[in-house]
């Protein structure tokens, strides 16, 4: 803020649009839960605040560090946007005084601007009155800047939000992540590799209100130590988004089972059989965790194992639980863009050895009868039990 400008002392927090269409009891519960999560997010980052006031559809956070607080709040799931603002009374002259002060701090010579106003409650003026009178005062007091009003495509906007006896004036809005508040949709077990896709799928599940328990299948000796190190680092990033609720990750040794598949089964079915074993183990962990689904990072056709025919053959290994694939219809560019936004891309993009067990000519259209015949050479239950018995729970700290 420029010297002498009104100081931001509040943050206006708006909820995701999907929350607004819920029944009143559900909406109220979700909004109160988001308020609690906002409080946790600010405390976790050491950002001071004096109060968090809840009105249907809004939170008003009183804080001397409004801009930093607004940025932190946009990482809270269920928040659609946040605006650092200057608070004042609903008296029209007070609003105009603050609005002119913000205009002085933000408008450059020759700029175009507009005033937008939203009101809730009874007032002796209309929203149009606020826009007209504040706009006129800005043009008058800042005449030396040669400002112009442009209601269609202004370079700058002075926003006013009036709610009963209070008013808030602001110029910037930071986009939030939206979604539902943490945990309202139950628990899922999510496969977390060292790649780009699976951490994004985990994040999307969290965004939809799921509590996520990550499971990493350690493919050594068919990969190297870097894959596990990257998976742990990715889990820490996800934990940072979950306000400490993601506290642990399963690491399952999968190399021995994969070696059995390589030795005893048709090479072209390696990836399909490998993933069927992963789903069986994940399903057992989900039952132990009381989870309602398994999440993977598959996208249609991205890899040979992710064709529709192969996904159908893979899913038949898991009975009684749905397999959720948040990225199913994403293309890679969309996934990469989201990975960059949430902070996982740089980790995922670091080199590792990949999986040396992948066949040169994998099937893209596995027939279930061929898959079941191939599995007759394996002691499936023993492989699953051995993997579960050696699985470790690793504590994750953001």
Walk me through this protein's architecture.
With 398 residues, the protein is of the alpha/beta class. It has 14 helices and 15 strands. Strands 1, 2, 3, 4, 5, 6, 7, 8 and 9 form a nine-stranded mixed beta sheet that branches. The protein has a six-stranded mixed beta sheet with strand order 14-13-10-11-12-15, sandwiched between helices. Helix 9 packs across helix 10 and helix 9 packs across helix 14.
Quote the average pLDDT.
96
* H/E series: EHHEEHEHEHEEEEEHEHEHHEHEHHHHE
Sheet with most strands: 9 strands, mixed
Q: Strand portion, in percent?
A: 15-25%
Radius of gyration: 27 Å
Number of strands: 15
Shape: elongated
Query: Would you tell me the structural class of the helices and strands?
Result: alpha/beta
**Helix content estimate:** 40-55%
How far apart the termini lie comes to 32 Å
Give a concise summary.
The chain has about 400 residues and is of the alpha/beta class. Helix content is about 40%, strand content about 20%.
Record keyword descriptors for this entry.
6-stranded mixed beta sheet; 20% strand; alpha/beta; elongated; 15 strands; 9-stranded mixed beta sheet; 14 helices; 398 residues
Task: Annotate the secondary structure layout.
Elements: E1 10-15, H1 17-20, H2 24-44, E2 51-55, E3 58-62, H3 66-73, E4 79-89, H4 92-106, E5 112-120, H5 127-141, E6 148-149, E7 156-163, E8 166-170, E9 174-175, E10 187-191, H6 197-207, E11 211-218, H7 225-241, E12 248-253, H8 255-264, H9 270-289, E13 294-295, H10 308-315, E14 323-324, H11 332-342, H12 345-348, H13 368-375, H14 380-390, E15 392-395
Parallel strand pairs: 5-6, 5-7, 10-11, 10-13, 11-12, 13-14
Antiparallel strand pairs: 1-3, 1-4, 2-3, 4-8, 4-9, 7-8, 12-15
């Amino acid at each position: 803020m420029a010297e002498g400008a009104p100081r931001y002392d509040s943050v206006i927090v708006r909820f995701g649009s999907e929350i607004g269409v819920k029944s009143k009891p559900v909406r109220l519960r979700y909004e109160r839960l988001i308020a609690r999560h906002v409080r946790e997010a600010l405390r976790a980052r050491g950002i001071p605040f004096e109060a968090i006031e809840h009105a249907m559809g809004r939170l008003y956070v009183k804080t001397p560090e409004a801009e930093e607080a607004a940025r932190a709040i946009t990482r809270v799931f269920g928040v659609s946007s946040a605006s650092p603002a200057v608070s004042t009374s609903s008296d029209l002259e007070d609003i105009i005084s603050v609005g002119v002060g913000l205009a002085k701090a933000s408008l450059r010579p020759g700029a175009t601007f507009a005033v937008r106003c939203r009101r809730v409650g009874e007032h002796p003026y209309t929203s149009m009155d606020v826009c007209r009178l504040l706009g006129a005062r800005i043009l008058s007091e800042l005449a030396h800047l040669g400002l112009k009003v442009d209601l269609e495509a202004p370079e700058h906007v002075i926003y006013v939000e009036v709610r009963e006896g209070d008013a808030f004036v602001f110029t910037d809005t930071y986009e939030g992540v939206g979604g539902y508040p943490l945990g309202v949709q139950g628990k899922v077990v999510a496969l977390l590799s060292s790649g780009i896709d699976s951490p994004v799928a985990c994040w999307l599940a969290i965004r939809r209100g799921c509590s996520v328990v990550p499971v990493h299948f350690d493919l050594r000796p068919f990969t190297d130590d870097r894959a596990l190190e990257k998976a742990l680092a990715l889990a820490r990033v996800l934990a940072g988004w979950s306000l400490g609720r993601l506290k642990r990750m399963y690491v399952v040794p999968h190399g021995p089972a994969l070696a059995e598949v390589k030795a005893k089964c048709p090479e072209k079915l390696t990836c399909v059989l490998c993933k069927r074993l992963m789903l069986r183990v994940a399903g057992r962990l989900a039952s132990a965790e009381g989870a309602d689904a398994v999440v993977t990072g598959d996208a249609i056709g991205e890899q040979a194992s992710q064709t529709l025919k192969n996904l159908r053959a893979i899913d038949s290994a898991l009975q009684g639980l749905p397999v959720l694939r948040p990225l199913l219809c994403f293309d890679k560019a969309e996934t990469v863009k989201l990975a960059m936004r949430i902070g996982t891309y740089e980790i995922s993009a670091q080199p590792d050895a990949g999986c040396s067990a992948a066949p040169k000519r994998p099937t893209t259209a596995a027939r279930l009868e061929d898959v079941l015949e191939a599995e007759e050479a394996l002691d499936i239950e023993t492989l699953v039990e051995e993997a579960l018995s050696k699985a470790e729970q690793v504590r994750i700290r953001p």
